[in-house]
Amino acid sequence: MTTTKRAFSAQIEPTFSELFTPKLFTTLREGYSLADLRADALAGLTVAIVALPLSMAIAIASGASPAQGLYTAIVGGFLVSALGGSRFQIGGPAGAFIVLVAATVQAHGMDGLILATLLSGLILAILGFFRLGTYIKFIPYPVTVGFTAGIAAIIFASQIKELLGLTLTTSEPGPLLEKLPVLWTSLPSYDSATVTLAVATIGSILILKHYRPHWPGMLLAVVAASLVTLLLDLPIATIGSKFGGIPSSLPTPVLPEFTLAKLQDVLPSALSFALLGSIESLLSAVVADGMTGRRHRSNCELVAQGVANMASALFGGICVTGTIARTATNVRAGAHGPFAGMLHALFLLAFILIAAPLARYIPLASLAGVLAVVAWNMVEKHAFATLIWASRGDAAVLLTTFLLTLFRDLTEAIVVGFALGSVLFIHRMSKTTAIETQTPFVAEDRADNIGNRAPYDQARINDPDVVIYRISGVFFFGAAASIGSVLDRIADTHRALIIDFSSVPFLDSTAANTIEGLAHKAKRRNVKVCLIGTTHELRRDLFALGIKPPMVHYARELSCALRVLKAKKTEPTEVVSTPLD
């Protein structure tokens, strides 16, 4: 039996190639036709049209140049699709990173940002190769909703200056509590032309989304705003006036200069990038799976994200991650496989090579309008309201994560939110674990025995010195104290104790230690302890922790246990004395 089970486990264990083969090769093995290429080309063009204004807007909001946003989408986006574990993932700069990237630029400069991006790519690749992608998906839902809403609020606040065309007397602070008073005092300096253009951009995007949802509303709104700015010669800030335009080619890849001290300085930022990037990319892959019925390879995806970030840094780009909105657009546009994401990057490259001079006329107010819409769409408004009213525990996790994101730090918010969510889960799980006495239970062989919850036959329990207790649910550290106190009281008044584990799917070392303590106490008082209903896995764990005969007896069922406890000597045919039966 044991050999068979182990052989079966070895058969279903995925191999290295199954875990880390990019979906691009899987797609090619299945057969790739000209019709598939046409579908991917159309989807890639659609996504590129969406990604073009977003990549520049996110980069500008992050404290980088619009060209860096395009480099990120081209280099990172191509590699995420070519090497990733998802058929439909679209990589590029993401709004979720704006806060972290801007803070890193402010603290360490652009060189520090590029070094942190390179280092975060290395961390992501290591996470993937160590197969930790599965665990990253365990982030509680209230945490993701909370930090996403917090990021959205910060993104919107970061665009108020460009939306209103404010003239600040001092540099714009990064922290929200410091930023808002500076913006408030600068409100009288607003520019009416800038406000009008920003409002028109937002209005155009929303109107097109409602009446023409399949049109590239963001790109059309930005193009229209650029034409108005050019034709009317509006005196407002543009990409050309602030950045001098964008280059018409990719830069030569260069390894950033670094020292050991510089690496230590940017390591916290790199860890934050890796943490958020892994969460964002795997969440995006899960969304794509839900839309298509496919399954992504999480560890392969993390490795691809790592390589993409390292390559983006070499080309002077910023952080790369899977982007939910662009990935969903890719799926809706009819993409067949990873070629769509690769072609989206090539279409963006074509824009740089052919139409780069036109980018200098794009007004910053229109890009700020694009980000304002993105920030609004990022907030999961229905989920936020539902979680607030669902339970006090979920509301506490959600609000704590949201407020820490706003006023402290994103990484701190995720860590604290995850810790609170874990404590809440432990509390809820402990309530599902119970211990019940022998009545009213029936015999194991009753025809109506349902789910191991059947009561025992009282005719077979005629010894008042024997007490039977059944533990149900996961027996772990969260429930060990309450169950242990009950078992301790039983041992004081009875000569024999039977503990039924037939409804326990799992126990941990704390629970095993509780049983061990009970067994030692029972031995001092000459109380016999017998465990019944234990599975092979439970016996293996208990034996490994030293809980074995003669400390306790093991029996397969109640009748056997009763005979063992009454006998002067243990009967070998009735007692399971080894964990491998």
TrEMBL record:
Keywords: Membrane, Transmembrane, Transmembrane helix. One of its GO terms (cellular component) is membrane. It is found in: Membrane. InterPro entries: SLC26A/SulP_dom, SLC26A/SulP_fam, STAS_dom, STAS_dom_sf. CDD domains: STAS_SulP_like_sulfate_transporter (cd07042). The chain crosses the membrane at residues 41-61, 67-83, 90-107, 113-132, 139-160, 190-208, 220-246, 266-290, 302-325, 337-354, 361-379, 413-430, 467-487. PROSITE patterns: STAS. Residues 464-565 form the STAS domain. GO terms for biological process: transmembrane transport. It holds the Pfam family Sulfate_transp. It is a multi-pass membrane protein. This is Sulphate transporter.
